[in-house]
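Q: What would this chain look like folded?
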Amino acid sequence: MLRILSRIHHHGVLTEDLQTEDEQQIEQLGQQIQAAIERKFSGSLAIRQVDAGSCNACELEIHAVNGPHYDIERFGVHFVASPRHADVLLVTGPVSRHMETALRRTWRAMANPRYVIASGDCACTGGEFGCSYASCGAVDNVIPVDVSIPGCPPTPKQLMLGILALMYKGERA
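A: My prediction, written as structure tokens:
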């Protein structure tokens, strides 16, 4: 049996018994997210993502968390096209002056209770752009933020941890 498992591992076929530690951590994290979503949102969490002026590095990580390796959708997290269907607004990038009104309108279009996640250093602090004639800086300069996920860009695992942190926000430890 050991010889067969060794051969399978050598040829690149991964069975459940041979999952890496990282994959097991992702699975455990996802199950925690799923349980928290079940408790707080009755089964699924809808996220509307808005690029408020980013370089698109954060978007690549968001695509990765939605891709086949992380597959966050299997844990009840869905990305939606309309803010009217969303529970959470996920904002990336420093808020450019041209996106300020659009971001406020998107936030206002969401039903209450509504939550906001600022993803990436630029969304959290304004990054290297800060406040200027062209930039409002951090997302919380425009709309209230519930959870900030630092990183340039934050990894898919950090995004999952941020979503989990949002699920536990306001609950007693």
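The helical segments are 2-10, 21-41, 57-66, 97-109, 121-125, 156-168.
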